[in-house]
Amino acid sequence: MWKTWSTENYSVVQRVEPLHRPSTASPKPRLGGSVIAHVGKGKTASKDPTQEWIENVYRIDRDLLGYNTGRSILLHCSYNDPSFNIYVGLPFTKGVTERGTGRTELILGSTAHHGEAMINQFDNVLWQPEDHSRYGNTMRWLNVGDTRTGFIGLDYNPRAAADAGVATSLDDIVFLANTLQEYGFDRQKRLFLLKPPYIQESEEGRRLRRSGKQTVGDYTR
Fold first, then answer.
1. Chain CA centroid to CA 67, Å
2. pTM higher than the cut 0.70
């Protein structure tokens, strides 16, 4: 349960956002560039696709991740590992990166799901929240905090389907770490392997962390 909070809704619910948002809009045309953002307008996290757009952001920095301050933050959730409570209150940003190309998309100021924001921006994406969504050749991740503080959480499942949108191997993790460092994340940023859909560290993540793999820099080659 990736808990977020917006200033217009103080209730704690099990899902980050509803499966069906009240307004619909045509998928955004594909935008060129290696780092893009799905951006919502307003002081709170947008729930209206007609008020959202795609833009180039070129790199990831502190100011960009700070866009979600006051819009989306990490909340306490009973399903999450209690050890992550130290990060409660920090800005929460969802991201996705394509294997091979490194093309990366952030979701800023919006309640959009990963798949919803990815339509047309990545190949072989199918967003069907009530059935089987496909995420192409990508890995979904989340960022809490800025480029150095907080942590990056990467969905990890070595038994997942190729289009499930999660990392399935050490090579995937290494590729993501190198890509995110190239785009602006600090080598000292903590990186956890999570068991989706909750913020719970996977057994493999614990094993690797005990072996010294704790930060983005630890996974880069």
1. 14
2. yes
Q: Answer for the pair 168, 157: CB distance below 8 angstroms, yes or no.
A: yes
Q: Supply the pLDDT for residue 25.
A: 58
Token pair recorded at residue 145: 């905090």
The separation between CA 209 and the C-alpha centre of its own chain, rounded to angstroms, equals: 21
Report CA 197 to chain centroid distance, whole Å: 12
d(CA 186, CA 203): 25
At residue 20, does pLDDT exceed 80? no
- Six-digit token string for 116: 């919803």
Place of tokens 């209206």: 48
Residues 6+ apart with CB under 8 A from 195: 156, 157, 201, 202
For tokens 């094993």, the residue is 207
19-32 average pLDDT score: 67
Give yes or no for a contact between 4 and 74, defined as CB atoms under 8 angstroms apart: yes
Averaged confidence pLDDT in the chain:
87
Could you tell me where the beta strands, DSSP code E, fall in the chain?
35-40, 52-56, 92-98, 104-108, 125-126, 134-135, 138-144, 151-155, 190-194
Q: Could you tell me which of 197, 203, 156 has the C-alpha nearest to residue 177? A: 156
The pLDDT value recorded for residue 24 is: 52
Which tokens is 190 given?
């903590």
Q: 187 φ, ψ to 5°?
A: -60, -25
